[in-house]
Amino acid sequence: MDPWPFLQAFGALIVAPLALAWAAQWWSGRAAAGRRVVGAATAAMVPLMAAVLFVVVASQVPHLDGRAGRWWSVAAVYVLFIAVMAVVGGLASRRAGLDTGERRAAIFAGVTRNSLVVLPLALALPDAFAATAAAVVLLQTLVELVAMVTMVRLVPRWVR
To answer: Phi/psi zone of residue 72: left (φ > 0), alpha (ψ -120 to 50 degrees), beta?
Structure first.
């Protein structure tokens, strides 16, 4: 397998945005214009992320090939992981003596895996694997999204 597509995807879609984020944070600490730019970017983050997710999911739907049964079993694994990690995060954070906010954050951090970060790498796979890998990553993202929305309601009830 040729490593060059992975390196390109990693550099262009992971390293470059991370470097820009660091630069923006540095700028915002030194100039009012930087604070305004970071504030605007923060306000736009959720709508932009929703738009990106919609476009990326729509681009991968044709690759599902009508094999819904297979995808439901993959989704079940993700749901099981979320349930286990929520319990583990809750128990570990309690045992560590964290306060309420820290315990809630630990639960959310354990459940999410930032699957969209690996999407460029999945898309850089050879054609025989790229479509399936991308569909799996997107399914994981969608399951996590539903879980996060659900957990915003449940975790505060569980961790008081």
So the answer is: alpha
Decide if 46 contacts 32 (C-beta within 8 A). Answer: no
Residue 37: predicted pLDDT: 94
Amino acid in the structure at residue 17: P
How far is Cα 158 from Cα 62, in angstroms, rounded to an integer? 39
The answer to whether residues 37 and 28 touch, using CB atoms and an 8 Å cutoff, is yes
pTM, rounded to two decimals:
0.66
Tokens encoding 133: 């890998």
Q: What is the DSSP string of 3-46?
A: SHHHHHHHIIIIIHHHHHHHHHHHHHTT-HHHHHHHHHHHHHHH
As a whole number of angstroms, the distance between CA 130 and CA 127 comes to 5
**Secondary-structure breakdown of the chain: helix, strand, coil percentages, each rounded to the nearest 5:** 85, 0, 15
pLDDT tens digits for range 25-74: 999 999 999 999 999 999 998 888 888 888 877 877 777 666 667 778 88
Tokens of 116: 């969209």
The tokens for 5 are 């597509």
CA–CA dist 49, 117 (Å, integer): 13
